[in-house]
Every structure is written in C-alpha cells, then in structure tokens.
Specification:
The complex is a heterodimer of chains A (about 150) and B (about 160).
Chain A (H helix, E strand, L loop, with lengths): L8 E8 L2 E3 L1 H12 L3 E5 L5 E2 L15 E5 L2 E10 L12 E8 L5 E6 L12 E6 L10 E6 L2
Antiparallel strand pairs in A: 3-4, 3-5, 6-7, 6-9, 7-8, 9-10
Chain B lengths: L2 H4 L2 E3 L2 E8 L1 H11 L4 E5 L6 E2 L15 E5 L2 E10 L12 E8 L6 E5 L12 E6 L12 E6 L16
Antiparallel strand pairs in B: 3-4, 3-5, 6-7, 6-9, 7-8, 9-10
Classes of the chains: A mainly beta (about 150), B mainly beta (about 160).
Chain lengths: ~150, ~160
C-alpha cells in the first residue's frame, strides 16, 4: 500500500450544457419572470400553487389558470448560510427560505439576504428583488429582502 | 422556429466539480502511463490481467498486486461509430469509439480509432496505439492519441474469453 501522500489527485469538472424545454405552462411562468411577474396556477378547489405547477398534486388535474402572486410574501422556513461556498449565487451571508407569496397557498424556495440572521423570523415579510439580467430563469428573481 | 418556440428552451447548465483521488492501484498505473508504459495488474488467484487496473479482482475479491507490463498492441473487441456531435467535444463525427483489448489483458477499455475509413472497421481488427509526443505525456491515457489498424490478421474474439486455469 503506497503512502496516502503519494496518491495522484486532480481537480475534475463534469459539465453538461443542457438546454431545458420548460413546456407550455412553465414557459409562461419563466417568460413572466422577464416582466418581473411571478405566476402561480389556480386549481378547481381554489388553491393557488406558486411557483406555477403543471398538475394539482391533490386532485391530479392539469392546471392552466395562471394568476399573479407576490412580489411580497412570508417566510415559512429558512436555513441560514453564514459562510457561502463558491457555488452559492450570493457571496454574503444569506438564507435559503421557503417563501409563501401573497396570493399563494404554497411556498417556493429562494434566497433572502441583506439582513442579519437575527432579523429573520418565520413569518417575516419579504419582497422580491429583480436581477438586472433577464434569462427567463428563476434567478431572474435575484433574491428576497425583508420588507421595510 | 418562431420567437415563441425559441423561448420554450432555457439554458440550464450543470457543473459538478470534483477532486479525484486515484487510489493506489490507479496511481501505480498512471505513473507508468506517464512514462509511456501500459502496466496491467494481475490477480494472484485466477491470474486474470486487468488494464486499466482498479486494484482488485472482481471475480476473486483479492488485491491485484502483480504488475504485468503490456504491449500497446491489441484488437478491437467492440466499437461504435459516432455520428452525432456532442457539444463541446472537439472531435468531428463520424468517428469511432472502440473497446480495446490489449494483448495479454482480460478486460478492455474505451479509446478512439483513427487512420481508417469508418466503414472498414470490424471486430477482431488488429490495432496499435499512436502516442502523443513524449513531452506532452501526463498521468492520462490521453497520452495515446488513438489506436490505428496494423497489418496483422484479425483475431477471433471468441478466443478472448477468459479461461479458468
């Protein structure tokens, strides 16, 4: 057995340049982000899923009734990242949070920053901050910040 | 394609960054590859020769601790003609990926075949490694640019099957 320090090591990067087809409904969701609008879908029971869901997980019906939600919402749960790693999109301390947008019955995962950990509470109100570059991706919402 | 259809596609790249640690068997193998040598490892129990070696014999479950220098000649055990370009891959289709069975080895590994019309490639064809210039050698089988056919009679691949001794 060779000494561990003699073992060969190398950095290795596996990269896939995927293009993803969002489908007819989710395309509308992503295209709306370019207009700084967040869309949810409303089911026949009146429940609003946000981000938009293609199918109702309860009734299994296909959903197409798009409704605008947010841009404000409430933190339902969060996890504070004190020391972001290189792959995180925010370099300052931030939180991953489940945010229930105004008008929605479900929550969506995004980031909350420009605050201290102690400022965040379950139930805190936050609002979307938009990215300067539009890519029709969820990152068009740059992050959420606490409502002033 | 209309503007509306174009928007249906979103860029969604995925990057996975690893630190690869070779392990002792692969380290021994790659240190030899850097010197332009292909050294397999043999099972002390069933004497099967593995190249590239992974450190143990999957048949016997013991460490392959016997180093076996091999030639850079062998035959094509199986192959695929690739016609579809892969984004980011500099090799222009059609090209051939083949499972290379080196003489004296009991397993094969994947490499490129060049220097022949793709239509003429066949299983059992004799081939030899074409190496990069020595000053470009690293700890990688990419030191071999590709394998190319040599003027020797084809091998019956049925004879390559492992025989229990």
């Amino acid at each position: 057995m060779s000494d561990q320090k003699d073992l060969l090591r190398a950095p290795f990067e596996l990269a896939y340049n995927y293009k993803r087809s969002s489908g007819p409904l989710m395309s509308k969701f992503f295209n709306a982000l370019a207009e700084q609008k967040i869309l949810g879908t409303k089911s026949s029971t009146g429940k609003v899923y946000a981000p938009a869901a293609e199918f109702d997980p309860e009734t299994h019906e296909s959903l197409s009734d798009l409704v605008e939600v947010g841009p404000g919402g409430v933190i339902e749960s969060f996890s504070w990242i004190e020391e972001p790693k290189h792959h995180h999109l925010i370099k300052n301390p931030f939180a991953f949070a489940l945010i229930k947008l105004d008008g929605a019955d479900t929550s969506m995962l995004h980031m909350v920053t420009e605050c201290d950990e102690a400022d965040l509470k379950i139930g805190s109100r936050v609002t979307a901050n938009w990215s300067a570059t539009i890519e029709n991706r969820i990152t068009d919402i740059k992050f959420f910040t606490l409502e002033k | 394609m209309s503007e509306e259809e174009k928007k249906d596609y979103a860029e969604s790249p995925i990057n996975l960054e690893y630190h690869y640690t070779a392990g002792s068997a692969t380290t021994r193998f790659l240190n030899q590859v850097k010197e332009g040598k292909i050294v397999g490892q043999s099972c002390p129990k069933c004497s099967a020769v593995y190249v590239p070696p992974r450190g143990s014999c999957p048949r016997c479950g013991v460490a392959t601790n016997i180093e076996v220098p091999l030639t850079d000649k062998g035959c094509i055990e199986s192959f695929t003609i690739v016609h579809i370009p892969i984004p980011g891959n500099p090799i222009v289709p059609p090209y051939v990926c083949a499972m290379i069975r080196l003489d004296g080895a009991n397993i094969s590994f994947l490499h490129l075949i060049q220097g022949i019309d793709v239509e003429e490639i066949r299983i059992g064809m004799r081939i030899q490694a074409v190496w990069k210039p020595k000053d470009e050698w690293t700890h990688s089988l990419e030191n071999i640019k590709w394998f190319t056919p040599i003027d020797e009679p084809d091998v019956d691949v049925a004879t390559l099957r492992f025989q229990e001794s």
